Amino acid sequence: MVGIDGYEATLKILLIGNSNVGKSSLLLRFTEDTFLPQDEVAATIGVDFKVQDMMFEGKKYKLTIWDTAGQERFRTLTSSYYRGAQGVILVYDVSNRETFDQLDNWFSELGTYCTNRDVVKMIVGNKVDKEGQRVISRKEAEAYARKSHTLFLECSAKTRYGVKEAFEELVRKILETPSLWQKRSLPNNNISVTRQTDFKPDEEASDNYRLRRARADNAVCLHQFSTWLEINIDLICIVPLRYFENNAY
């Protein structure tokens, strides 16, 4: 069922992997069809994200794509962003053996923090444009993906090769798993709230009356929000403040 915003569903996708594998470049290429040289791409601080519309079989979906920092010092911050993710792309650099070897650790973290058991996982080997420097063969990566029961694709954020296809394949697999994206709504008859109504008519013009009435109305709103939050907690996305290492906002 299409929501009031015109979208069939909102899907949350994470990009994880070591630093400098090109996660931010993949995100920028997919959402803005832009590529920046390595020396112009700043390391992600904590978590960044972008929103992208995608049409699939005549229906419109909203993708919220989260780009997580690969540095260990941000690991405690980024772990909370696994909550509610329907798809995760694990990125490595085909010209860097260490980034591939670290995939085991990223799978372990994913298993620890992800709240959706059916989350769709995809391994993406980036930077295939550096073919002369490749140290991870496609055959080796495919074997690892089969062992991990994970989707696999190679791409290049620099040349566009495979980038769109990676996100489309991930979304297709998510949509084939309705439990990951079916909308949940709050039944109106599940909320029962009693308002404070013992105000005397002659008090209605007083400041004290208005204050007590405001408190009563706020209590109703808070109860409704708390009930909705309990039902939809996995759909919540915390939007990070953009900050820098020098604490300048």
TrEMBL record:
Q: Which reaction does it catalyse?
A: GTP + H2O = GDP + phosphate + H(+)
InterPro entries attached here? P-loop_NTPase, Rab, Small_GTP-bd, Small_GTPase
Q: Which UniProt keywords apply?
A: GTP-binding, Hydrolase, Lipoprotein, Nucleotide-binding, Prenylation, Protein transport, Transport
Q: Name one GO biological process term.
A: protein transport
- E.C. numbers: 3.6.5.2
Q: Which GO terms describe its molecular function?
A: G protein activity; GTP binding
* Name of the protein this chain belongs to: small monomeric GTPase
Which source organism does the UniProt entry give? Funneliformis geosporum
The organism's lineage is: Eukaryota, Fungi, Fungi incertae sedis, Mucoromycota, Glomeromycotina
